[in-house]
Amino acid sequence: MPPSRLDGLYRSLLLTKFFCKGWGKPENLERLFAFRKIISNRAACSKLVPPDYPIEITKEELTSDCKILEGKFKTPLEIYLPGLVPDVVQNAHFQIMLPHKWNDERFKPICIHLAGTGDHYFWKRRNLIAKPLLKEANLGAIILENPFYGARKPKDQRASSLHNVSDIFVMGGCLVLESLVLLNWCEQNGYGPLGITGLSMGGHMASLAATNWPKPLVVVPCLSWSTASSVFTEGVMSTSINWDVLETQYFSDGNYRERLSKMVTVVDDAFVAGQTFIKNFNQSVEELKQDICQTNDLINEDPSPDVNLTVIRETTPEREQKRIHINRRNVLNLSEPLLNKLLSDVKCELDQTEIDELNLKIQIALKNYQEEKKSDSDKLILEVKAEDTSEAIPSKSLGSKIMEFISWSQSTNVNTNPNSNDTTSSTPPTELTSMEKREPIDTTKTRWWEREALQFMRGMMDECTHLKNFSVPYDTSLIIAVCAKDDAYIPRDSCSSLEEIWPGAEVRYLDAGHVSAYVLHQKLFRSCIIEAFERARKKMIPESECVHGEPSRTDTDSSKQK
After folding, report:
1. Going by C-beta distance under 8 Å and a sequence separation of 6 or more, which residues neighbour residue 162?
2. Between these two residues, 323 and 251, which has the higher pLDDT value?
């Protein structure tokens, strides 16, 4: 079914932009990627949080409906990755709701509720889901304040708009470890069975946290899926991301392309081609520059900036002759040493810094020409041409293909300089066309450097959030996931299914979009939570010890609430 139009309309009404400060520091991302490999392993992660991890209860209150506790503790992530968690985020705040009396001392169910996007403080989850569950099923609740939200929101952050992409990984790492702290506390105080749930982003965070609890755990993720990559690259949320900042930062700092892109993995097979392109990009550019520099003859007809400068490689039996024309002025704004090196009449060899500078200036120039629509006199023309276009090219390096694509995208987006001998085709190279077809990328982002930043985002999100990269929950029979068929926030078609990743888990689908499901189907979410806890009860308490399928209430009146 088509994505919900209501989802798109709702998102368009929200003017906030995400990731306005960029990807985050490369060194921070590198530490997060390395730590992901630890917390994605249940045996390793469960040892990071001791059972007696210190928690401070700051407030106790008795109401007519329940007993309410409030508390805080230091997030364990700050212990293992010091300096990555902002000061205001380091204290995890939570609220606990307990019934005045348990129906059975052997059955004291408590569910952790994690926040969706924009769910600040406790009141929304307390009133929409925790209180009704307490009334309907005598089910206790722990409401955890989300990192970067409510009392944990940095002062310079606007609403829910995280500054950096790395912030969402810090958020996830905090929630995984903080959930373990709370589950341990519940177990130490005699509560159980235990569970975890959430809506939208909270649902996915609940899924991640559930993978690391080494015992049976009720898991009810609502309106989420197997990875967050599709949310930020395909769903309506992708339109709220500051892509201009991300693209500029990605190409201006070689750390993202050279180091970080090699540390991330696009999990689903549909994106392997795009990921390979990212990983090989820098190598291909270097290969291209070496092709340019290792010429047999270099002819500089006129050093004046307004005259064509032509670099010619002699024809060999194996490779055809090619020319690289740089017309007009030094519009690339290259540094003087690099410019002199390129125009030198001796064989040259570029170092990595010069390769990075040349590549960056090409990207910036092409982007400026398209966006600012500069006049013909200022156009950049950078072409790689075959001397005889009628001859088939037997082999081309990926670097050459990239340069051909630059030339093609330029010829289709700006008018070609009439003084240049442009014989470039109006269609891109066949190999790139087929790559385009393989990449399920937003059609509004047609330029290849946009696609590369988009694929880097996909790789980062898959690396840190794809459930295939985490352990399978201890008991998948206690999992009931609820998804919306027409969800425009969380596209599912290009992602692995939950049923495939978690064999034995149950997935239920609503005929609704993301927003309409959230507004109209809260009762269904609650009923799924109750049903999943009922499954856990049957596993905890043998049927022979229950009366008519209900927990025995013998001696419960005289028992004391924990």
Report:
1. 18, 19, 148, 168, 171
2. 251
